[in-house]
Amino acid sequence: MYATAGRWDAVKELREMMENKGIKKEAGCSWLQIKSKLYTFVAGGCTKFRSSVEFKMYWDKLENSMKELGYIPDTSVVLHNVDEELKASWVCGHSERLAALAYAIICGASRAAPPAWSIVLIGLGWLPHDSHL
């Protein structure tokens, strides 16, 4: 609530209080099953996969397609006191849902047998109004 209202002093105070009391915010998490193996994706995590050449190539194509279609990230969903450019990168780049989807497409495309395959992501308990999925 404080962050939405732009009350960054109150946000800082609340986060410090939470830290002092040992209270931690749970990161967003999504799961993906490919055949019998379950993969977990955490917001801001999966750095090994996100650093891979395959992901970067796929991400660049996806980002360019989104821009061509007129997508403008809604940075109001980023409740941190940082500049707009960083907020825009967080809206897209730190999404565990996009990492899971990209992983499914990259892995599925290389293993798929005709005629088709489907992707089911589990754990999308909430979707912000700026959701890409």
TrEMBL record:
The molecular function terms of the Gene Ontology recorded here are: zinc ion binding
Give one Pfam family: DYW_deaminase
TM regions (residue ranges): none
Residue ranges annotated for the DYW domain, each copy included: 70-112
Quote the protein name from its UniProt record.
DYW domain-containing protein
Record lineage: Eukaryota, Viridiplantae, Streptophyta, Embryophyta, Tracheophyta
